[in-house]
Amino acid sequence: MNAVIIAVLVMLVLSLLRVNVVFALLIGALAGGLSGGLNFTDTLTSYTDGLGAGATIALSYAMLGGFAVAISRTGIPELLVAGVLKMVNKEGEATRENLAKALIIFALFAMAIFSQNLIPIHIAFIPLLVPPILHILNELRIDRRLIASVLTFGLTAPYILLPYGFGLIFHEILATQMELAGMPIDMADIPKAMALPVAGLFLGLVVAVFVSYRKPREYRAVEAATIIEETPKRTASMKDIIVTVIALIAALFAQIQSDSMIIGALAGILILYVFGAMKWKEADDVLTAGMRMMAFIGFVMISANGFASVIQATGAIDSLVESAAAIFGDNKGLAALAMLIVGLFVTMGIGSSFSTIPIIAAIFVPLSVEFGFSTLAIIALIGTAGALGDAGSPASDSTLGPTAGLNVDGQHNHIWDTVVPTFIHYNIPLVLFGWIAVMFLG
């Protein structure tokens, strides 16, 4: 069996058995390396060599976690909570309760979308907004799997379709890698090619919200003030509100100008420090609490980079694609399906669609040309193959982010409450609609 398949299957099975994702990635990498012809020493060397690539993103999330918890200490999130509570203060009033549910879901949905394109902060908003409203979600008995599905859709669909913010980066990577593989494209064609696959993601969202997780689910009551950490908060003054808004704007501006989430978070934290919205005597405990909250994501991202390094060292991705193409011969439909499944396996292991495209484009472009696919069809094929597995991967920040916010009180399992639901509702329709797009665009 191909080393990529072995590595990903081992990682997924261990994750489903509730083995820690970091250990599952390490064991999966060892299994893939050894089955791919590397000896134990070479496998371990490739894994450790790849770890450094994840250090920047790990530090970025740690800094953003510290910034998010610092803002939460100013009392700003409590103002949001109080506003929502006014809508649910009449027990048994179904209309009011449904309106509150709709408001929360829509607000998180909108913020997730904005975080990719309009306000490119990615998952940084989740630890800021989600933990303070968990007790409201509990009162309303909202299934957190629904919230995870909403957040993951907002973290993936916009960058796949829209060429702004993170979407611009994704589209540029797709266009650059296709050109390097011998097929220059017009970036304006990418949204046209990816519209139908994203429609599949939207269908999955509709099913998750209105069918799969619409029923109430009971959770233990946990006070919002004690969810993140047992450190004091205060009522937000007008000065705190103004300083916090300035800090958020400064963080966004610094991130855009420096292209660094680390610098953005640092700018926001410094403003909270300098203008007194965060007290000096509390600062160390607050920032440490935020970093600890996001530490799990950092370790997973570091481990995922080691996993990717081993998989690439085996050379098994090329052989996997070639074997799939040989099996299906001249059948374009089956060949397209095989390439989409290969993309799913690669991204499930690596955890990043942005990293998957450079790996698969060099193989998929000449193979697709050989099968006679059009340029738009090849864009749809490679774009969808890269996006597959971002939702539903244990190592993706699109699933790790929602879990970081929803599991602050220990009642949301990363694998069974985020990974499995998003895999079912997004990867299955994305394969189907992506395949239809490829065949329709021919």
Automatic annotation (TrEMBL):
<keyword id="KW-0812">Transmembrane</keyword>
<feature type="transmembrane region" description="Helical">
    <location>
        <begin position="423"/>
        <end position="441"/>
    </location>
</feature>
<feature type="transmembrane region" description="Helical">
    <location>
        <begin position="371"/>
        <end position="389"/>
    </location>
</feature>
<dbReference type="GO" id="GO:0005886">
    <property type="term" value="C:plasma membrane"/>
</dbReference>
<feature type="transmembrane region" description="Helical">
    <location>
        <begin position="99"/>
        <end position="115"/>
    </location>
</feature>
<keyword id="KW-0472">Membrane</keyword>
<dbReference type="InterPro" id="IPR032813">
    <property type="entry name" value="Na_H_antiport_N"/>
</dbReference>
<feature type="transmembrane region" description="Helical">
    <location>
        <begin position="262"/>
        <end position="281"/>
    </location>
</feature>
<keyword id="KW-1133">Transmembrane helix</keyword>
<feature type="domain" description="Na+/H+ antiporter NhaC-like C-terminal">
    <location>
        <begin position="150"/>
        <end position="435"/>
    </location>
</feature>
<feature type="transmembrane region" description="Helical">
    <location>
        <begin position="293"/>
        <end position="314"/>
    </location>
</feature>
<dbReference type="InterPro" id="IPR018461">
    <property type="entry name" value="Na/H_Antiport_NhaC-like_C"/>
</dbReference>
<feature type="transmembrane region" description="Helical">
    <location>
        <begin position="121"/>
        <end position="138"/>
    </location>
</feature>
<feature type="transmembrane region" description="Helical">
    <location>
        <begin position="51"/>
        <end position="71"/>
    </location>
</feature>
<keyword id="KW-1003">Cell membrane</keyword>
<protein>
    <submittedName>
        <fullName>Sodium:proton antiporter</fullName>
    </submittedName>
</protein>
<feature type="domain" description="Putative Na+/H+ antiporter N-terminal">
    <location>
        <begin position="2"/>
        <end position="88"/>
    </location>
</feature>
<dbReference type="Pfam" id="PF03553">
    <property type="entry name" value="Na_H_antiporter"/>
</dbReference>
<feature type="transmembrane region" description="Helical">
    <location>
        <begin position="7"/>
        <end position="31"/>
    </location>
</feature>
<dbReference type="Pfam" id="PF13726">
    <property type="entry name" value="Na_H_antiport_2"/>
</dbReference>
<dbReference type="InterPro" id="IPR052576">
    <property type="entry name" value="AA_Transporter-Related"/>
</dbReference>
<feature type="transmembrane region" description="Helical">
    <location>
        <begin position="150"/>
        <end position="174"/>
    </location>
</feature>
<feature type="transmembrane region" description="Helical">
    <location>
        <begin position="240"/>
        <end position="256"/>
    </location>
</feature>
<feature type="transmembrane region" description="Helical">
    <location>
        <begin position="194"/>
        <end position="213"/>
    </location>
</feature>
<feature type="transmembrane region" description="Helical">
    <location>
        <begin position="334"/>
        <end position="364"/>
    </location>
</feature>
